Amino acid sequence: MRGTLLAAVVAAVACLSAARGAGAQVVISLEGACPGAMRLRWEGATPDQWAGLIYSDERGNFTLNQPGGGTVTGLGTRGLRLVWLFRTGAAGQGAATGRAASPSCGGFLQRVVQDGNPCTTSNVVQIPQ
Question: Measured between alpha carbons, how far is 65 from 86 in angstroms, rounded to an integer?
Answer without folding.
Answer: 22
